[in-house]
Specification:
Layout (H helix, E strand, L loop, with lengths): L53 E7 L4 E7 L13 E5 L2 E7 L5 E6 L8 E2 L6 E3 L2 E7 L5 E7 L10 E3 L2 E5 L12 E5 L2 E3 L6 H11 L24 H14 L37 E2 L3 H9 L39 H4 L27 E7 L14 E2 L11 E4 L16 E3 L8 E2 L3 E3 L1
Parallel strand pairs: 12-16, 15-19
Antiparallel strand pairs: 1-2, 1-9, 3-4, 4-8, 5-6, 5-9, 7-8, 10-13, 11-12, 13-20, 14-20, 15-17, 17-18
C-alpha cells in the first residue's frame, strides 16, 4: 500500500506546499578579449535506519504537543518501525529513539510550509533504557523534529548517479605533459546534471547571508538560466555548505580536521582547508579532479571530448579556432553564436547543448568548473590522481593553485577536452569560473 506523500497532521497544524522564490537579476560585463592557446596558470587577477526515507516530525510546546509523520511516495506504511518518540518531563519535552538506529541524525525546523531542516548540534543524546534521549526546553517558537536517514540509497532530487568503477584519467591523444594517463578507481557518487545556474545561486546565497554565511563575491550571471560565474573557490565551497544546510543535510566542509565548526566564513588568509576538513559522503561539495574527469567522459574511454574526438559550436560553447586545431576543431571560428545573444559574457543557458553518456550537460565549455584538488604537476606528489589508486583527493597539504576543468566560452577547444587541466589561485573570481555540485553515494 502506498501512502499519500503529503504530511499527515494530528492536531491543529496547517500544511502547505513549500515556496521556491527565484531571483531575476541580470548582470553585464565588459567586452572580453579572446584567449587562445595559453592557459592562465598561476594568474594572480551498521544497522540501517528502520525508517528509511521516512521523516518523523514532532512539534513541542509547553502546553501542547503535536506529532506529525511524513512518508515519501512509494514507501509502505509500517507503524512498528516508527523510531522517534516524545514524552513530557516537567517543563521539557524528551525526544527518544532506539539505540539500534544508526545512520540517522536529529534535525529541526521552525515550520513545515517551507522547512529549513538543520541538524540539532547543541545537545548530545544520552542513552537511557536502550534509547537515545534528547531533552528539548520549551521556547516561545514552535519547533518540528525529524530523524533524517544519512545513508539513503535514493538518488538525491535532480542529481545523476555516476557509477563506481575504474577509468583512465589523463591525455592519451595530445600529449599534455601534466596529464600523463593512468588508471584510477572512483567510487559511486551523485552529480548535478547542470552547472549551478544564477537563479539557484541567488536563492541559496540569499538564504546563506541571513544564516551566518559571508562571501567575498556576490556572483554574477547573464540571465537566471545561465551559469553563475565570477566566483572564487572559497565562495563555491561555502555555498555548497549553505545549500546543504538549507536542505537539512549535514554540511561537507569544516574549518579544521576536528570537523566541529561548519565552514561559513573566511578565505585563503583565514581558513586552511585540507582533506581532513571534509565529510566526503554527506552534503553537497565540489568534485575531486578524478570524479570530474570520470563524469566528463560519460562512460567512454580514450576520447578527446565527452562525445568523441572532434568539436563544433553545435556541441559546446567555446571559442572556435579551426585553423589552430585543424585535426579536431570544426568551428566556426570566434565566439559561439548562441553565446553572443544578450552580449558579454558569452555564456549560454545551462543544459543548452546535448548531454554526455551520464546525462551531464556542459562538461565541455560554457564556464570552467572549480574542483576540490590542489594542482600537482609531474613529478606528482602524494594524493595526485595521476598516481592511480582509489578515490584520490589531491594533495593533503598546502598547495598554490586549485584545479579548474572543462574550458569556457572564452577559451579555445583545447580547454574543452576531458583531460585538460587548468588552475589558478583559489581566491580569484573570474567571469569564466563557475561550478557544479556532487554528493557522496
Amino acid at each position: 500500500m502506498k501512502m499519500d506523500p503529503r504530511p499527515t497532521c494530528v492536531g491543529q497544524v496547517g500544511c502547505s506546499q513549500p515556496q521556491n522564490p527565484q531571483a531575476d537579476i541580470y548582470e553585464k560585463h565588459n567586452q572580453p578579449a579572446p584567449r587562445l592557446g595559453s592557459r592562465r596558470r598561476g594568474d594572480t587577477s551498521k544497522p540501517q535506519c528502520p525508517t528509511l526515507n521516512r521523516e518523523c516530525f514532532m512539534k513541542t510546546k509547553l502546553h501542547a504537543m503535536c506529532i506529525l509523520l511524513t512518508l515519501m511516495t512509494g514507501i509502505p506504511f509500517a507503524p512498528a518501525q516508527l523510531a522517534l518518540g516524545i514524552a513530557r518531563s516537567g517543563n521539557q519535552a524528551v525526544l527518544s529513539w532506539p539505540t539500534t538506529v544508526s545512520n540517522c541524525v536529529l534535525q529541526s525546523a521552525t515550520n513545515l510550509a517551507a522547512p529549513n531542516w538543520l541538524t540539532v548540534s547543541n545537545v548530545v543524546p544520552v542513552i537511557t533504557n536502550s534509547n537515545f534521549t534528547v531533552p528539548v526546553t520549551n521556547t516561545a517558537r514552535t519547533l518540528f523534529f525529524r530523524l533524517y536517514d544519512t545513508n539513503t540509497t535514493v538518488v538525491p532530487a535532480g542529481m545523476v548517479l555516476i557509477p563506481a568503477g575504474p577509468f583512465t584519467i589523463g591525455d592519451t591523444l595530445d600529449g599534455s605533459s601534466d596529464a600523463i594517463p593512468t588508471n584510477v578507481y572512483v567510487s559511486a557518487f551523485y552529480m548535478d546534471p547542470n552547472l549551478v545556474s544564477y537563479s539557484l545561486w541567488r536563492t541559496v546565497y540569499n538564504w546563506a547571508t541571513n544564516h551566518g554565511y559571508s562571501f567575498d563575491d556576490p556572483g554574477a550571471g547573464k540571465a537566471t538560466n545561465h551559469p553563475v560565474q565570477t566566483l572564487s573557490w572559497f565562495d563555491c565551497v561555502k555555498w555548497c555548505n549553505a545549500r546543504s544546510e538549507k536542505e537539512g543535510l549535514t554540511p561537507a566542509y569544516y574549518t579544521d580536521g576536528t570537523q566541529a565548526t561548519v565552514y561559513r566564513a573566511g578565505n585563503y588568509w583565514l581558513v586552511f582547508l585540507d582533506n581532513s576538513c571534509v565529510r566526503w559522503t554527506t552534503g553537497y561539495r565540489l568534485p575531486t579532479e578524478a570524479e570530474w574527469e570520470k563524469a566528463a567522459r560519460g562512460g567512454l574511454t580514450g576520447l578527446r571530448f565527452p562525445w568523441g574526438n572532434t568539436i563544433s559550436e553545435s556541441q559546446a560553447n567555446y571559442f572556435g579556432c579551426s585553423y589552430c586545431y585543424t585535426n579536431f576543431d570544426a568551428g566556426p571560428d570566434s565566439y559561439n553564436a548562441i553565446g553572443l545573444i544578450g552580449g558579454s559574457p558569452y555564456t549560454t543557458p545551462v543544459g543548452w547543448f546535448p548531454a554526455n553518456g551520464y546525462g551531464l550537460y556542459d562538461m565541455a565549455g560554457n564556464v570552467y568548473e572549480w574542483c576540490w584538488d590542489w594542482y600537482s604537476p609531474p613529478p606528482y606528489r602524494t594524493g595526485s590522481p595521476y598516481l592511480g589508486g582509489t578515490d584520490p583527493r589531491g594533495l593533503n597539504g598546502l598547495g598554490n593553485f586549485r584545479i579548474l576543468r572543462g574550458g569556457s566560452w572564452n577559451w579555445d577547444a583545447t580547454g574543452a577536452t576531458c583531460a585538460y587541466r587548468d588552475f589558478t589561485v583559489p581566491s580569484i573570481a573570474d567571469y569564466q569560473y563557475g561550478f557544479r555540485c556532487v554528493m557522496g553515494h
